[in-house]
Amino acid sequence: MKPLRKRHLQVWTAWAILLPVGIVLGWLAVPYQQPVKLLQSSAADLLPVIMQTKEHNDYTVSIRSDHKHTAWQLEWKNKTALTYPSAVIYKAGEPGNDPGKAELIGRIEARGDYVFELKPGLAQSSRLKLVLYDFIHEAVIDTIIFKNPFRYPE
Amino acid sequence: MDNKEFYIGWMPAAPGGLAKHIRKVVVILIMLVITAGIILALQQKKFSTATFEFGQLTEITGIYQQFPVPSIKAMSNLDASGHSSSLTIPLVGYGKSGAEGIIAELEKEKNTTLDKKTVTFRGTLLYSDGKTLLQIDKNDDPLTKISDAVVNVPPAIKELGTVRLTGEILDPKCYFGVMKPGQGKPHRDCAIRCIAGGMSPVFYVRNEKGEANYYLILDAAGKKMNEQLKDIIAEPVSLRARAVQYDDWIVLYIDGMNKITRTGGLSWFKTKDGDTYCGVSHTINVSE
Amino acid sequence: MSASYVAVGWNRQKKIYDWLIAGFCFTYLLLFISVTLIVNEQVTFETLLIRSTSTLAVLLLHVILAIGPLCRLDKKFLPLLYNRRHLGVTMFTFALAHGGFSIFQFHALGNTNPFVSLFISNTNFNSFAAFPFQALGFFALLIFFLMAITSHDFWLHNLSPRVWKTLHMFVYLAYLLVVMHVMLGVIQYENNPVFVIIILAGAVTLITLHLLAGSKERKLDKRKFSLEQEGFMYVCPAEEIEDSRAKIFCIDKERIAVYRHENKLYAIHNVCKHQGGPLGEGKILDGCITCPWHGYQYLPHNGQSPPPFKEKVSTYDVKIIDGKVWLNPVPFPEGTERPGATIK
Lengths: 154, 288, 344
Description:
The structure holds three protein chains of three kinds. By secondary structure, chain B is an alpha+beta fold.
């Protein structure tokens, strides 16, 4: 039994060196992935005037224009990562959300900021109803309504 | 402990002094168990919001594309003016296998080719971070419709030039849905097995905000290089490649393994370099 | 202590011990799983299973490895030692759940047999950072498996306590493998210093306990006995040995326990036949030397277990001259009756 006791002590003396060294080396070996710059939207520059903004937990949607109100944009900023297999934005007709009767504005992904041109012809309409639609699941994710979207809110 | 006290396990009870001591030890152990359980649970990284619609089958109609990876280009509903948007959904097989095997089986069974035809696949969706994939499994009778004629709608192709990127090679099925975490060292063996099984490898690049770009990987000739990638999966690597955008995915054409270098290891000994990066354009064109 | 083998010889204290083990494990799993679900609801069932069982097994392993040296340092911890094997088997069960499910999760449903895949997937044996950490876990699990299946007294007797003890010393290797499995595995992804500090704190605690206990034992083994007379060595004054207790002396590599019983001194080999427990740290109960580890008993004058038990240890000659104890380190065959020495 004495050799066994001696072996215990020998093993733990060795471990007293090996364990801390192994733990520290393992910690140093943790890969550090340098964050990189991702290519961002190559869309048109943002127009300077924000006409209206709607806040949602997951995104912020704004109508933008220039000073002379000749050009219009829809700005879509995702705040969290969306969890849908697909997401497209339609400008829906009234009533109903049928994409077949709507006008497709564009597709967005789970993250990032998006800018879409809006046709100036819409300037007179009193209501802009946007539908965020998951065409893979054929389900409406959200509807966002702007009243008098192309005028400043009263 | 009183020297008169002596513990014998097979006696009905331990002597008083000993029992008192052991009760103290038990209280310490309870506190240890509670602290460990809470701290270990709280200190874990957040899990991704990836979804695998396990047990739920969805039918997807679109154009099947063999290149760059087996995928289905699904179109959104036509709007009033006949416009639609598209989403390229790479296909994966059951378990840790790519889609090529089952596609070949289906083509043999139907005695036709699928490439560039309008098809309807029934399968299990998995999606995360703007990317969607479809698992097709022989047991789900996955091919429900196939057009006779080839549809000629080529993808929008854009040359992005030569890029140098730092990121991680991962298998898309686990990362975009099935496993959490589906990346990094703990998942490494699984990613190796999935990519060996024919899953199209994906290159994952992230910025400091956690936002990511995803790329498909092919060799310079546009062929799969799954076998060669085996040893550098799921660890930080730098690579140089020709980048070409196909609709909503970018393909990296890598001219040989010497274009990929490890950047992991003991991070203290690494130097920073001036990589340039590129990602998928966030403007997704509406097709006319 | 039993004359024949039964699956588990239950008694009241073992039951209390096992209920406590079950209570600890249940509390841990409940806390880990519910806290994870509350703060991290996106977690998958598989990951929850893999992580809750693995962390629990590592926690249990630390407790198991601390019990031995704690008992050597302070006899008050001995009740924890008595049923340590059940703790070991419990730890193995959780480690097996972790390992088995991980092999399924990460290797099954692929183009290769999962057990083959375990060894051929990651082959970066020449890299520290990319090292195949799963193989480390597999070998640790294999050691725990061998220990768990041989944990019964049947194996202890058939393999001989010495072989059995040596086999069970591989737990130290398994511990090293587990630490590196964690460091080169999940830590490489969960690069949170809290986990590293926890692992390091666990290792430092165990190293300290084992080195302290080891050096204490070493001191006992290293004592020199210089006075010799006709084969007898002078060991200590007679009054130093308390009644019903013993003192241990290590002469020529073997430890001998000198017991005082009914005003006489008797010397027997210090090593219990069961698991090698230190008989000299025991006590005389009902006229029998009782091992502190598991309560095996021997008669002081002949080193035999009382019938129906059959264990026997070596006996030695001891004599008292002028109140001084002299011990002859040459053993008599196991179970040989010796007269002992009367204290005046």
